[in-house]
Design a protein that fits this description.
Pathway: Glycan biosynthesis; Cell wall biogenesis; peptidoglycan biosynthesis. The protein is mainly beta. The chain has 4 helices and 30 strands.
Length: 425
């Protein structure tokens, strides 16, 4: 790949190398002008690639890319390396201009374009562009975002499920930094590692009403750790509806539902009796079922015992995976508004339960206050994410541990919201 040169110039010969060294002839291209280049940035037998079993030439992404000038007086003046998406590969040029090397990992299974500018001992410039591919990753870390696309309440967290566990703090920072959540209007939010394979994303406060939330990943091809590279992830778009918040005051035996800060209705209810007290705290609607058959045996109550039951239940709104619902309880109407007699659910009349069922959607907020029950778990029994304060939430972020949590501009709390209707701060 010898380039044209003037008789007075001495070529600046470079070598491009990676870990596995086999000679490869690279196609050369000029700068688009009619003027001959005064220096040649690549040797025709420059060591840049290795041959795979199928005969293709691909660079090992686990090794740094190095470009070296050969010949007295010749030096590199600039190197620009980009992948097919336009992302730059960071690198460092030696003070004497004799060598450039990448300082960031190469992506696996990616195509790179490298542009090198050189200068010979007489100061005459040279420039050349070359492309190469990196070998695909032996192992991929795939990501699945949730929930499914659709419209949700303002309490719905975004989830990311990984195809394999990631435990190392540095590797978690790589993953977290490649998972992007953008909302319109903007919010101040962050990811939280629930466990080694699960992340949740929430704002500091609930999502704004009528927001658009876009979730994307730039992890594909990125080295996570060792031989593990990021795999593909389908993007996700969510929307929020009205800001619907239902607060059950177990001590006052009533539930109040607000929409966009305005009270819609207060209805009498009954919650868990002693020994079965309803969980305090913020929960999120998980789903709705017009009919459920509830059996006490599913929560460990012996059949035939004093507390056993087997009931047909209508208009059931689920708020925990363990079986806590807001539902119709016509058998306890006489206690609704005055006593707590349930086994942990929030019961109301059939008409009120049907009304509540029609008012809410998955992701809407349901909070219980004034109960003698334990607090709602942050994870594992539904979406209790909002029961963590913002500082507690950030402690679960690998990027926050490095002093750079993800997020955007802050969003002020909406007017008309009582303090208890917001996550702890």
């Amino acid at each position: 790949m010898t380039m044209s040169q003037t008789p007075r110039s001495r070529p600046a010969i470079l070598r491009v190398s990676c870990a596995v060294v086999l000679a490869a002839t690279l196609a050369a291209c000029g700068d688009g002008s009619d003027d001959p280049l005064a220096a040649k940035p690549y040797d025709a037998t420059g060591q840049i690639a290795y041959s795979t079993a199928d005969g293709s030439r691909r660079v090992d992404p686990d090794k740094p890319l190095k470009i070296t000038a050969r010949g007295d007086g010749n030096k590199i003046t600039d190197v620009t390396a980009t992948d097919a998406t336009g992302r730059y590969l960071r690198g460092e040029l030696a003070a004497d201009g004799r060598e450039w090397h990448s300082t960031a990992p190469l992506a696996a299974g990616a195509h790179y374009t490298v542009r090198v500018s050189t200068e010979d001992e007489d100061g005459r410039p040279g420039r050349q562009t070359v492309g190469f591919d990196t070998a695909p990753a032996d192992a991929n870390l795939r990501v699945r975002f949730g929930p499914d696309a659709g419209v949700y309440g303002v309490g719905q967290p975004v989830t990311a499920e990984l195809s394999r566990p990631v435990r190392d703090a540095a590797a978690r920072a790589v993953v977290e930094g490649a998972l992007h959540v953008t909302s319109h209007p903007a919010v101040n939010g962050a990811w939280h590692w629930v466990d080694s394979r699960t992340l949740h994303y929430r704002p500091r406060d609930f999502w704004p009403a009528d927001a658009r939330i876009e979730v994307t990943s730039t992890l594909q091809g990125t080295r996570v750790e060792g031989g593990l590279y990021g795999g593909p992830a389908a993007p996700l778009t969510l929307r929020t509806g009205d800001r619907v918040v239902a607060v059950t005051d177990a001590g006052a035996h009533q539930l109040t539902l607000t929409r966009n800060g305005h009270r819609v209705r207060t209805v009498p209810v009954t919650t868990g009796k002693p020994g079965f007290a309803t969980r305090n705290g913020i929960k999120v609607v998980l789903g709705k079922e017009p009919f459920v058959r509830m059996r006490s045996s599913t929560i460990g109550i012996d059949v035939g015992s004093h507390d056993s039951y087997d009931l047909p239940v209508h208009w059931a709104t689920r708020v925990t995976w363990s079986g806590e619902y807001v539902h119709a309880a016509p058998w306890s109407v006489g206690s609704q508004g005055s006593a707590n007699v349930s086994h942990g659910c929030t019961g109301m009349s059939t008409d009120n339960a049907h009304w509540f069922y029609d008012q809410v959607r998955p992701g809407d907020v349901v909070e219980v206050v004034g109960s003698e029950g334990r607090g709602m778990e942050p994870f594992g029994n539904g979406f209790g994410d909002w029961n963590l304060s913002w500082s507690e939430w950030l402690r679960g972020s690998a990027l926050a541990a490095k002093g750079r949590p993800g997020g955007h501009d802050g969003t002020a709390r909406q007017p008309g919201d009582a303090a208890r209707l917001a996550p702890r701060t």
